[in-house]
Amino acid sequence: MPEPRTPLVIAGHGTRDAQGLAQCRALVEKVAGALPGVHVALGFVEIVEPDIATALAQVLDRAPDPGPDGPEAVVVPLLLNTGGHIRRDIPGAVERGRGEHRVAYAGPLLPDPRVRTVLERRIARALEPDDGPAWRAADTSVVLVGRGALDTDANSNHYRLSRQVWEEMGLEQVLPSFIQVVRPSVPQSLTAAADSGAQQILVAPNFLFAGRLRTWLHEQVAAWSASHPGVQVRVAEVLGPAGEIAEILIDRYREQLGTVGEGQGAPVYLSGLRLQGRDVLVVGAGRIAERRIPKLLAAGAQVRVVAPSAGIRVAQLAQQGLVDWQQRAASPRDVAGAWYVLAASNDPQVNEEIAQAAEASHIFCVRCDKAVAGSAFTPATQAGGGLTVAVVGNRDPRRSVRIRDELLRLLQS
What are the protein's UniProt keywords (predicted)? Predict the structure, then answer.
């Protein structure tokens, strides 16, 4: 499908922090690089020029004719949550800049689960820094810091995010906090973690870029740590110009043009694979592999696992002779002979190489760290009463599981 030519204006917040501004511009460059032929502009809510209204007016002056129905430009906010900027400031700027033109306005980055992917990667990186000892997730308390807003929905979304990170990463606990406007504050959540007996606390900011919020956070953590010398405290980095964030912006843009839209379902063709006696390659032997391999075995697949190390469950399956575990680093050559591939390594570069090799060999591959970069999705499945229910969602696996369970309950009632 040819890429639409409708211009895109990315609406950022604005900062005086040189590093934060550079991170913002780097992200916009990634978006522009993925949309050849599309005029991608950047405007700001405050502090930095051009403002959103000016950026929008400038792209509309050069916008191609979209025909009688389509928008003449799309504005996508580079903000995590709903709030005053999303509901008032940016729409007001769009109204001032659009003149008589038709302009579509997209929603914020959350609740897209790819934001959580980046956040968890920052946390994992801080748990195992280059310049210090590694911390086990199960021994570490995390204080997850949001911006804080007068908008109740935005604050409640932060609590939900904290719970998801806790469950997915196996941390000792995750305590939500806010850097401004509402409570609990960062010092309050740090104290709550210490009062619960935490000796290792990782403070994780859910901020897009460096700026005054990041500066305030480091100041508050330093002040608290000075009065609690018996507790080890680390601070993770901001999300930054991650590829997943760029992908969300691009998807928000395309949704407004109807090329990818909410309500249209996941962009896959549903089918059932008969894997009885067929070779299936699983790269990686961690938590994801532990969940997927039993269902592959139940389908009769001959599972071949390639990973330098394995979790308890996969190691047990190998000892029982149920899977062939090759204890080494994976190579693109490993896809040879496979009918189906799961790239489930904790190294994105390895997953990318495996997925590319599978693509070149016309082998369907699920890339577990970045679903859209693979050629297949794994549905949420459950069997019961002679039925197997499968749900394929569009990047929200927990929602797929809830719908799957509800469908199965209804069909069995």
Answer: Lyase, Metal-binding, NAD, Oxidoreductase, Porphyrin biosynthesis
